[in-house]
Structures
1.
Amino acid sequence: MKKTYLLTPGPTQIPESVSSIFARPIIHHRTPAFQAIFDDVRGNLKYLFQTKQDVLVLTCTGTGGMDAAVSNLFRRGDKVLVVNGGKFGERWTKIALAYGLAPIELKVENGEAIEPSQLEALAQVNPDARAVLFQASETSTGVRMPTQEICRIAKSAGMLSVCDAITACGVFDLPMDDWGIDVLITGSQKALMIPPGLAMIALSEKAWAMTESCDLPHFYFDLPKERKAQAKGQTAWTPAISLLQGLQESLRLLKEEGLHNVFRRHELLAKATRNAVAALGLELLAKKAPSTAVTAVRLPASIKDGKAVPKLMRDKYGVTIVGGQDELEGKIIRLSHFGYVDRFDITTGISCLELVLNELGHKVELGKGVGAVLKTFAEG
Ligand SMILES: *Cc1c(COP(=O)(O)O)cnc(C)c1O
């Protein structure tokens, strides 16, 4: 017998009160019953995004939300600045190129956040750029980018700030209206604790105004059309009805805990994880600005096959974490601690890591990381 534990940065674990909803009979979406659910969801999404704007729900994963943002905002040939700190930053560039934009990258080393002055300098030499596209939390490296500063710089340069908050929204504080985030995007299988299949996106007034001059091709993701439909409690196309029912429950759970308590829980879990990493003599990839969503850990040189670490954790012990992608493949592991995660998920994850490091020939004192985790929790 082996229990399984999911500690990945999406999909994340699903609370039972959410998953039980998916066994219900399907309802039709052009009905008062659906409309009541959707109205409740739309209200609570404003709470989650900390905005007065409409938060639109799209049937797609997070990348679809990024795609929709680009294809609804810009004009062919538009110059955009992209903060590229890893796999997801790179995705902004790829989407921009797919639509014939001219992305200019601010490339940062894996594990580093940008310095605001770097972006300021890039904006200065590219005053005609129309937007800054970035990640609030770069999931591939576990880095938290300075969102508030990025938005401030974009605004003063007359550019739009377009924020992929897919592992940030509902993880740490990201007040859309207060910080002047023009476009905020998230996805369902991350902090929202439901299966993949929904993206959520909100636009500022300035961003809505930009959609009017957009000349890029799009059909399925037509944000002005969605905005009109969703204001009436409907969607342009058939919505993912069951996922929306799950979302209603997960938003209720987030609200019940209180958004700021959710952020504090993630901070504590991230801190416990980092303390365990230090106690085990391992090194963080993101030293200066670690995200509270996911902790990326450099694997020691004594482990010859880095990919064996997550593999053994999963296959032998049932604990699923992820490794690195592209040039970080086999070099790091990433432990996620957001969503439906509590103290004993982290305790379990670290204890499994200790066993596996030993088995793969990197000797650590058993219980050392776990001790650091428990000490962090005891101190609160
Ligand atoms: C998960 C994730 C995405 C979206 O990925 P999908 O596979 O389309 O859901 C985008 N950006 C970040 C930062 C993510 O963590």
2.
Amino acid sequence: MGLSGCKHLRFSGYLLKSLTCKCLLLAGLVLLFRALFFPKFPAFAGFDANYSVVTQSDPSSSLSLSNAESQIREDKFVVVPQIAWGLNNQKIAFARACLTARMMNRTLLVPSLSASLFYKEVDQLQPISFDKVFQFDKFNLLCNGFVRLGRYSDVSNQTDVFELQKGSGRKWTAERDLYQLKQSNKFPVDRYEVIKIIGKNPFLWHDHWPVKDYAKVLECIILVDKIAKEADRVVSKIRDIGKKVNPRTNLDKISGVNSESSALQPQLPYVAVHMRIEKDWMIHCKKVEQRSNKTQICSSKQEILERVGNIVGLKTPTVVYLAVADTLLEDHSILNGWREGLIPFAKKNLGVMGIYKKYPYLIQSAIDYEVCLRADVFAGNSFSTFSSLIALERTHKMIKLGVKDFCDRDVRWPSYAYNILGESKGPHRWTTDMSASNLQAISYGSDDLAC
Ligand SMILES: *[C@@H]1O[C@H](CO)[C@@H](O)[C@H](O)[C@H]1NC(C)=O
Ligand SMILES: *[C@@H]1O[C@H](CO)[C@@H](O)[C@H](O)[C@H]1NC(C)=O
Ligand SMILES: *[C@@H]1O[C@H](CO)[C@@H](O)[C@H](O)[C@H]1NC(C)=O
Ligand SMILES: *[C@@H]1O[C@H](CO)[C@@H](O)[C@H](O)[C@H]1NC(C)=O
């Protein structure tokens, strides 16, 4: 964004001709100025220009809670243990750490995420700083007044640290946990510059916050440009194939989906399916089914194909992007058996393996997440955290578009849970209950799909 800003600043060329960095500095000032004085201006739109109307985080909504008087303290900090596991466990854990710091009216020192997907071997988790994957400054800008991230260099006294041991075990109830947090707001603990929370990864902490608070934090988490560009490349590949498949697709047909999209540029729709059928998942979900006495958690490949094929009103032909686990990438059978008009692509036949191979697990997953988030239609498993967070963000997008009836058949950005039967033998429509009082359903799966 900074470099393209240079073009627009040429009118004052005599000042800037020499140095690019001056230009960047100026572009930065312009952005800051815009942020301060034109809060409605979409300068901080998401990286996908084609969807700026949609992915942009509306600053007025982000800031609605803040309105200056409730700023987070910048001279008191919280440190949390390294965040681990799947991308979406990490996002949830990060948001929970932010909300914990908010409760203490403290800045969260930028935490370590984990680049690799090891569950047990803690020494192999490959710590990676949050700001290597997501934009630090933009996070603070978008979440200004709500939660705040800080850097270790902001701490003035490195030894003025209070170690707060999180309790664990059955006796450590949510009430006790909340009580402990509230005590930390008071003398003598509050006096310390840094509160270092010791114990489990924040994903395992008790939850005390409503879904809409999580949604607010999640919307401030924006990929760094380098990774965002990789996601753009994958999405363009999918859309390019869409053009070849369906050359007659025209503007009328697409904008006919609903009127809200007419302001957007013509796009070829695509469906993203988060297909959870790998062995590990199947073992896990069978266990969950037994434990919870439910039958609608695991979906076989066949069930996914059939239900996605039966989505009511789906315009065909269409490209179907299959987001699958690594172990399935060599399994060509996932490309077979789709209903006529649904043309399946996975990373390999899409020719994007090279993009993914360059990165560790966390970033590969973050790219796939973006691809699913931006799909015109998304289908996932309501017991998967990955799918659930996508459904949450897509619901949030619809709210920002002013959609009233999320469950309406013609709504933009519909999501479906293929593990639950919906109308006409299709998958069940899925939106997130934004009024829920905690993140339980999203963290651990649910068959309550709010539609
Ligand atoms: C947090 O601290 C700031 C600065 O002391 C104060 O202005 C603000 O009201 C506090 N916010 C809350 C929620 O207590
Ligand atoms: C830093 O904090 C420690 C512990 O609270 C305190 O003993 C020490 O005097 C502080 N140092 C400075 C320079 O304030
Ligand atoms: C955005 O739209 C332009 C023009 O329609 C197109 O060339 C470009 O590939 C699109 N980008 C993405 C990421 O879809
Ligand atoms: C499991 O669910 C079935 C049908 O809903 C019910 O009949 C059965 O009693 C349940 N079993 C247990 C152990 O809850």
